[in-house]
Amino acid sequence: MTDVNLATAQENMVEQQLRTWDVLNERVLEVMQKLPRHEFVPTAFANLAYADMQLPLGYDQVMLEPKVEARLLQALDPQPNERVLEIGTGTGFLTACLGEMAANVTSVDIYADFTELASSNLKQAGIDNTRLETADAAAGWDDGQRYDVIAVTGSLPELHQGFHRSLAEGGRLFLIVGQPPIMEAVLITRVSDDQWACESLFDTSAPALVGAPVTRSFAV
């Protein structure tokens, strides 16, 4: 696929996927139009970078569909003065989007391969306000800081509150919760020190966050 075709595919992604799936936030549309998603996907799938599908990354993990990434960004609405925590760095594309929209991003992945790849991709894209960590954050992340925005890109088989207290008051948390084939994307907002509001966003499905806590058995 030529550069011209990639540019056309990116434009089509914005107009035919994002806008038709109720992504109307202009800042989100601008960042999805600006960043070269094809430079963040595995080389073998570069031609599918703007397709409406998940792309395999290895370790049974995926890159979420562009429309899901965009709806995530729209729901969280990161502001230029806000701090972001991302759980599940992957190739760094969503990290880059968050970095473009917010003041800074801390992104955590359990796989060192992904951290290394994302670091290279972010450097190439000129995104320099991110800090990458390799660690297991499936049960939560407590580095002593509070974040305005938290994006968890792997699903949780069961909702837990491991990330809730890492939110600043007024902070927003995006989660995908449930079992396949249908899961629920939710937005959790910290409204006070001990209260959170939960809003259902849309149905989707994504691989579970590696090591996500499960306290009960599910029938197959």
UniProtKB/TrEMBL annotation:
Pfam (any one): PCMT
Q: Which GO terms describe its cellular component?
A: cytoplasm
Q: Name one GO biological process term.
A: methylation
One GO MF annotation is: protein-L-isoaspartate (D-aspartate) O-methyltransferase activity
Instruction: Please indicate which superkingdom the organism of origin belongs to.
Output: Bacteria
Keyword Calcium: yes or no? no
Q: Does the keyword Transferase apply?
A: yes
The alphabetized UniProt keywords are: Methyltransferase, Transferase
Similarity annotation: Belongs to the methyltransferase superfamily. L-isoaspartyl/D-aspartyl protein methyltransferase family.
Q: What is this protein called?
A: Protein-L-isoaspartate O-methyltransferase
